[in-house]
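Schema walkthrough. Field components (list of strings):
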Amino acid sequence: NAGVTQTPKFQVLKTGQSMTLQCAQDMNHEYMSWYRQDPGMGLRLIHYSVGAGITDQGEVPNGYNVSRSTTEDFPLRLLSAAPSQTSVYFCASSYYTGTSANTGELFFGEGSRLTVL
Amino acid sequence: SQQGEEDPQALSIQEGENATMNCSYKTSINNLQWYRQNSGRGLVHLILIRSNEREKHSGRLRVTLDTSKKSSSLLITASRAADTASYFCATDSGWGKLQFGAGTQVVVTP
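Field assembly_structure (string):
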């Protein structure tokens, strides 16, 4: 199994450009999420999804869009890139028990390093 | 704001010593999880402790949870150089919202 796959691994954008970070998992996990990691800040939750067709905002959603049309894929779209979005982005997936609202251990991708000039 | 806060921010020990780090959080949780991140890599899950559990072990790892104090601790016994990494706690407050702390950087010297 590949687990969680993120593409691209590295990307340089100019201010105002848009792009999509791709995330795919092959573990049939209901839960998927996007985090950004900045020095000294730990991981901050951007958006998450508890199943196909369901998405919700995390702590820092502004400037990002997501959709979940399939169980496997959860792309993150930057609408108009800004230097403040320079960061390392991680996608993660997990099982999710809807009845008890519990999320299990997260499986992470290797990260996408984005620089906005 | 972040739900979990780790303490200390950095920890330097010698091989064979024990490493202890703490995590405090603000709201009620379903479970608390600990992760390790090696430099430049993704995070790897270490252990999950549910809100009705007080202690859990996995190999050289021991995790405690005190829900009355809203705190957890991770103990790594007999540290090895390979344990050098950043360690993060993550709290699950339900409905898919897992939030991470800023992490503890651990350096284990031979």
